[in-house]
Amino acid sequence: MKLFFMFLIFLSCFTTIFAETRTNSTEINLLVYNTHGLHAFFSRDYPSKRFPQIGKLTEGYELLLFQEDFSYHQTLLESLAEKSIIFRSDDTRSLPCFFCQGSGLTIISNFEADWHLKNKEEAFKTCSGWLRGLNDCFASKGFQLLLLESSNGKRFFVLNTHLDAGRDTLDREARADQLQQILTTIQKETGGEALIIAGDLNLDWEDQEDRSLLKEFMNDLGLINPGKGIQAERGWPILDYILYRNGNSTTLEVLEIGEDIAFQNDEVPLSDHPALFMKFLLY
Questions:
Q1: Residue 68's domain is classified under what CATH number?
Q2: How many domains does the chain have?
Q3: Backbone phi, then psi, for 240, in 5-degree steps?
Q4: What does pTM read for this prediction?
Q5: Is residue 1 in a domain?
Q6: Does the residue 220 lie in any domain?
Q7: Three-state helix/strand/coil letters over the chain
C-alpha cells in the first residue's frame, strides 16, 4: 500500500511538471510551399496575379518555407506584412548563364521581434540535367538552414530545400548526393538540437527507390514523418515533406498537419503543388 501511495505522489508531481511545461509552450504554424514562380512564359499561367494572393495568405503563419520563388519575388514582397523578415538565398553564380535561375528558396518569418534568427545557406554540389530531364542545372538549388531561438531560450533549426527533379537514374543519384550534403551539414551544425527539414524533396513515397532513399536519410538523422498518408485535394503526388526530430532540451509536439486549401482563387490552385502546413507546440 505504501508503494502505491508513493506511486500516486510521483504521478501527481510528474503530471504537474508536464502541465507547467506545456503552459510555457509556444504554438507555431509552419507552411512549406512550392510557389511555381517561373516566368509566365514557362509557367503558362499568371504568376503576377497569383503571387500577391500568396503573399496575403502568409500572415496566418509564423514561418513559411518557399521553393521556386524565382521571377516574382518582388511582387511577393509587396504583399507581405510589415513585420515579416525575409531570408532569400543568394542568386549569384560562378559562371554567367542568361537562362539560369537562383535557388528559388525563400524563408519568411512572422515571429515577434524578441526571437533571434540566424540563417546560412549552401548550394548543392551536384545537379542532373542541362538539356535533358527537367533541366535542374539551370537553377542553383541548395538549402537554407535557419536557427531560431525564443526569448526563453528554446532553440531549434529549420532547413528549407528543393531537391533535383526527374525520374531517371541520374536524377535519383543527384538527389542522393544532395541528401548526403544536407546530412553532412546538419551533423556539423545542429548537434542534438531539435530540427525540422522541409521542402520539395521530389521523392515519391509510392516509388520504392525514392522511399528507400528517404527512409535512409530519416534514419540517419532520427527524423519523423508526421504527414505520412497525407492526400492532396487534387490528387497530386506528395513530393513535399515536413520532417522533424526533438532535441536534447527542446520538444516539438505536432498538433495538426495537412494541406491548406485556402491557397487557391475561385477554386483554382495558386501553384502546381499543395500547400502543406504543420501546427506544433515548442517547449
A1: 3.60.10.10
A2: 1
A3: -105, 140
A4: 0.89
A5: no
A6: yes
A7: CHHHHHHHHHHHHHHHHHHHHHHCCEEEEEEEEECCCCCHHHHCCCHHHHHHHHHHHHHHCCEEEEECCCCCHHHHHCCCCCCCEEEECCCCCCCCCCCCECCCCEEEECCCCCCEEEEEEEECCCCCCCCCCCCHHHECCEEEEEEEECCCCCEEEEEEEECCCCCCHHHHHHHHHHHHHHHHHHHHHCCCCEEEEEEECCCCCCCHHHHHHHHHHHHHHCCECCCCCCCCCCCCCCCEEEEEECCCCCCEEEEEEEECCCCEECCEECCCCCCEEEEEEEC
Q: What is the pLDDT of residues 106-127, one digit of tens each?
A: 999 999 999 999 999 999 999 9
CA distance 154 to 249: 8
Determine the number of helices (DSSP H) and then strands (DSSP E) in the chain.
6, 13
Backbone angles phi, psi at 198, to 5 degrees: -145, 160
pLDDT tens, 160-187?
A: 999 999 888 999 999 999 999 999 999 9
Q: What distance in Å separates the CA atoms of residue 91 and residue 281, rounded to the nearest whole number?
A: 34
| pLDDT exceeds 90 at position 246 | yes
In a domain, 17, yes or no: no
3-class SS at 132? coil
2 is a domain residue: no
Domain carrying residue 90: 27-282
Q: Strand runs (DSSP E) across 191-230, as ranges? A: 194-200
* Length, in residues, of the chain: 283
Q: What is the pLDDT of residues 175-219, one digit of tens each?
A: 999 999 999 999 999 999 999 999 999 999 999 999 999 999 999
